Amino acid sequence: MDFLLAAESDIVPTRNFNLLYVILDCVFLAVLLGLLLWKKRYSTVLFALFGGVLYTLVDFGGFYLLSHTRTVFINGELQGAGGTFLVLLWMSVSYGFTNFAFIWTLVAKDKYAKYWVFLIVMWWMICPSISELGGEATITTSRTTGAYHGWMGAVLVVGYLILTVALLRKDPKEAFVSILRLCAIGIAVQFGWEFSLLVNGIRPMNGASIRTLIVNSCLETNLGMPIIYLIWYLWNRRFREDLTPADPERRERESV
């Protein structure tokens, strides 16, 4: 496992888990999806599914196929494209769906947001403990970040700079979003699962653990928050959460 040779000061996010962890997480995702559909949170579901697809494209397409920074081991054996894709598909859908549902409900100020966030964070913290019933960890994933963290930082700065300029052009009382609240959501969502992975031993503790926790939380999900807000803003102008028209009278006029 070449990633074990990396210096302890390097940011090399690693996860060790077993098959039961994967199975339990899939069950939770199905339950969360069912609850969102029950409460007609259709926009949230669509955005969360989009998150799963996006994370899969980035993780498998970007990190594995293009930059070759992602590795997956099962029972100590390095996996090829097929095995890697299956593991990354689950990881991407899991964190993409929960991250984007977490973000969307808070950005939209959903009246049930506290319940959705509670369920997601509770699961992140408790699932690793339950999965210990399935025996030792046999699946290990890792990725190096040096190849792209610089570009991520540049995207974050540019995105928030554009948003800041847009807000400075408006009266503070008429600002369409709190930039501090948006940034806090972006940091909190990744910190939630990064912290749960670390304290539960899925992400091993080493000399770079705290740095990985802080840098990833401030950067990786947060860099997309300005564009996520723009998506929500444009979507919200046309659709309600249950996908009915946001302004039926306006839509009727436009269709004439």
Number of domains: 1
Quote the average pLDDT.
Answer: 89
Strand order of the biggest β-sheet: 1-4-2-3
Largest sheet: 4 strands, antiparallel
The number of helical segments is 9
Q: What is the number of strand segments?
A: 4
What is the radius of gyration? Answer: 19 Å
Estimated structural class: alpha+beta
Oligomer: single chain
Roughly how much helix do the residues carry, as a percent range?
55-70%
Q: How far apart, in Å, are the first and last alpha carbons? A: 64 Å
Element order: H for helix, E for strand: EHHEEHHEHHHHH
Topology diagram in text:
Layout (H helix, E strand, L loop, with lengths): L13 E4 L1 H20 L3 H25 L3 E5 L2 E2 L2 H27 L5 H19 L7 E5 L5 H20 L10 H21 L9 H11 L5 H14 L9 H8 L1
Helix pairs in contact: 1-3, 1-4, 2-3, 3-4, 3-6, 4-6, 6-7
List key phrases describing it:
alpha+beta; disordered C terminus; 256 residues; 9 helices; single chain; disordered N terminus; 64% helix
Describe this structure as you would to a colleague:
The structure is a single chain. A hairpin with a 2-residue loop joins strand 2 (70-74) and strand 3. This protein has helices at 19-38, 42-66, 81-107, 113-131, 149-168, 179-199, 209-219, 225-238, 248-255; strands at 14-17, 70-74, 77-78, 139-143. The chain has one domain. It contains nine helices and four strands, in the order E-H-H-E-E-H-H-E-H-H-H-H-H. 64% of the residues lie in helices and 6% in strands. The protein has a four-stranded antiparallel beta sheet with strand order 1-4-2-3. Mean pLDDT is 89; it is low at 1-9 and 250-256. With 256 residues, the protein is of the alpha+beta class.
